[in-house]
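Title: Prediction job returns without error message
Component: structure pipeline
Severity: low
Priority: P3
Assignee: unassigned

Description:
Job completed but the reporter wants confirmation the result is attached to the right record. Sequence as submitted:
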Amino acid sequence: MSGPDQEHQRPEGVDDATVESLGKLSEALEVVEEARGLLYAFHRRCGTADLTLGEAVDQLREAGHTELADRIERELVGRNILGGRWSFQVVEEYDAGYYALFRDLERAARDELVGGRRHLFEAEMKEDRRTDGLPGHEAKP
């Protein structure tokens, strides 16, 4: 029976509880990665909204609604989405703070407990679930 490559094999002496806990930590990081992607989507949508708002202000002005256009431009165009921040600043703060610390601690846990190996839990699950020798069920690429 072929198995995973060396990088996805459990180091000698590592118990199930350690592999499971690192798998759960990795799962949590994946959720944080997904949240980060949503935050970047939020950032892009905020920027698109502000640019589109500018176009709406121009059209209101061209349609003769100068006072309303001026008010919207003054009060809303370019406004911070949070206290003192545009969305890029929210992204930067998240990346430099919570996200960076989460990634660093997840990596440190893997380095300390399994020599930095990733996805051991998933690699063992793959071995358990695949049918050895069947096309499409190969252990390695």
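Comment from assignee: result matches the submitted record. Residues 23 and 124 are 11 Å apart (CA to CA).
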